[in-house]
Design goal:
By secondary structure, this protein is of the alpha/beta class. The chain has two domains: about 110 residues, no CATH class; about 280 residues, Alpha-Beta Barrel (TIM Barrel). It is built from 16 helices and nine strands. It is globular.
Length: about 425
Amino acid sequence: MSKRQSTPSGKSKAPASKAKPAKPARTASKAKPKARPATPARSKKAPAKPVVKKAAPKKAATQKKPAVKPAPKAAAKKPAVKPALKKAVPAKSATKPALKKAVPAKSAAKPALKKAVPAKAEPVTVNKPVAKPTAAKAAPPPKAAAAPSSALYYDSHMHTPLCKHAWGEPEEYAEQGIRAGLKGIIFTCHCPMPDGFWPTVRMADSEFDTYLAIVARAAKAFEGRLDVRLGLESEFFPGMESWIEKLHQRAEFDYVLGGLHWQAREYLGKYETGTIEAFRKCYFNHLAESAETGLYDCLAHPDLVKNYHPDSWCLAIVKDSIAKALDRIAATGVALELNTSGLNKSYSEMNPGLEMLRMLAERNIPVVIGSDAHRPHRVGEHFMTALSHLQEAGYDEVSYFLKRQRVNLKISAVQASIKKSADAQAG
């Protein structure tokens, strides 16, 4: 209010100052004939003094109009001019009522400005929590409905922009988690690694605290609406177990997902030494080895290596090696992930595929479903299909982890909860 009142008052003074040179100048020029008869009075007094006083106004008159300022000084000597000055004062006060009328007119426009403010604020908080994470932190996106009380399951695999190949802020992933009918989500961004190990696809060690902070920020923003948890996709590479073990002690993770990536340049450089089949067998051997370290709760995308020369993938060729690896994994109690993002990869099939999933079921290896989302809209993607695959493979339970403890749920109950949420949102 104060800023808008000051601008009109400033504008009102400008016209008043323009009124002084126009109207008073004319009244002063008209007053000169009246003042000339009083010249004998000047001669009676010291004539030299008026000459000096007239010289001063002439200098001032060179800066402004000469006709205006001499008149007020002549009037200052005689009471006859003072009434003219008093008349000019009411003229100024007369302009003030006009200003007072203009003030309500502009203050009346302010309600319209106040109405426009919420209209501009809504798109920032609703549609762009990512562009302005602080807005999302202060006020969670209002369009996201509260997670239904019937929601049961978590999406346990997703990333943040810190890994350099994911897009969207944690709040956007959380908002999609609500739409997907989930109880919660667990961030598992690619962990930092030492000695410049494949740095282009993971957070730097200096960004580890930032990762903890942005996940905590999303958890606070969605408190009471969606359960946001801290996890980590923790790389496995033979010889780096000590680094990984110390890394896991730097924060309280709810879930640690082992990540064996054949496509790492270091992995290819060290183990791609023979045939395609030999390389794949080496991969499955390392998968079992990662479970045996005891560092991980679950192993991500267990047959990811089928995307290595995908046109030649044939499970039957390496099935014996897979079976041996799964036997070793089953003995550790470590879970395996059913990764729905496999449908978006070069070998378009979930990781693992249905045939290998049956091999897991035969060994009672627990399964956790993860979307491996690198974009918000993929959170919870294909979960109903994944649950159906589990049932087809012989499972009746699906798992997730909190506080690094496995939680088992009936698949039928999870399906019902997701369907109920989808129906509620459609309605």
